[in-house]
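Memo to structure team: turn this sequence into structure tokens by end of day. - J.P.
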Amino acid sequence: MHIKKLYTLSSILFFGLGVAAQAPGGVAANLKLWIKSDAGVTATAGAVDSWTYSNDLTKSFIATLADRPAVALNSVNFFPSINFNGANQMLGPNGLNAPIVAGDDDYAVFGVWRATSPGAQRIWSQRSTVSAFNNGVSLSHYNDGSTNFWGNQAEIAPFTQTWTKSFQLGSWKISQLNLLAQDNDDQQVFDETNTNDPVISNTYNFGSGQAVRNLADESNSLGARNTPTEEAFVGEMTEIIVYDAAVVTPLTRQQIFSYLALKYGISKTGDYFASNGTTKFWDSTANTAFRFSVFGLGQDDNSGLLMASSNSVETGTGNGTGQSGLGNIVLSAPSALSNLEFLMIGNNNAALSEQATDVPVTADPAVRRFAREWKVQHTGTVGTVTLTFDFNGLATTGTIGNVTHFRLMVDEDGDGDFTTGTIRYQQPSSFSGSVASFTNLI
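Reply from structure team:
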């Protein structure tokens, strides 16, 4: 594994710029529920009839008639999502077949979701169907009138919840609820912004969490509480993962978060690790200045993951179309991608505006470049790739659509100084509207 090259966009003359048993992140111990929107979904005319567990093909969530959510294609990083409209609910195996054994004191729940409406809403729940305070667990979110929060609606009398992390409506989240088998500080909450540093709270106000917990197994549901319109979810989900034990080691957590972050183009904190626990395919310390909008290509067979095209949710959309003014990059078409090989890219969050400085000393005085730079970490040999860059909404001196006005500028020694060392240039092979394509990049 090595750190490979720094990239910026510049212009000449005018401007710059089938597998063995699988588990999420390779973490199979205590895995009881794993659903993902790109597998196991049976739909009729776009409405989801069943959603089968990826870890156990004998188990499924089921919905009928108007209770059914909808499949949304190309919703996030070229993957579909399951869209709940506030009147949908899917019911899964309960009782002895529920993901978490009744009465268990520890568990872990991971989810990838995007809420589009405020309010008290359930994404996934395991709970009773009898009383108001009935010892359940719910990956859920809430709006206090001004701010949206998500967390665990741990229904323990007197009512207790740990909605502790804020979020923005319309933004994709990777969430983890981690319940520890202890009385105090027993609930840990993680998302892509704090994968190493949990938000810690109590599921019971008086510090006796284990004494009062008695998790029920009567209901295992997606998208609502007891009925399809009760605390119903309005938004999309792509993946729900439940372990019947807390995920306590930092490395194990990073493996799961890394799998989800790479798959959905959601940048996270910390290092990125493959399913073997040893392949570090993004070094957060070495790349700390380039920690923004991290995404990439890769293959991890033990996670069932093959990423042959990707963009960041921060700059792009589900089908790769760029958001205006954000300079979306799509990576695709790796020519030699194999298991445990990756190509990751992040940027330094500098402005997407032109500058005349930090260009090669031999460059024409009229050359301009974007201030922003991108850094690539290459693990293994993925071969050549195609990179597209969307100029939509960006001011350029060069004429968008004219391939002779633009170059991709590569600092071969990777020190970020484009006035020294060997600088390689690549002209776009073509333009499609505002999108420039660079093919056969190494």
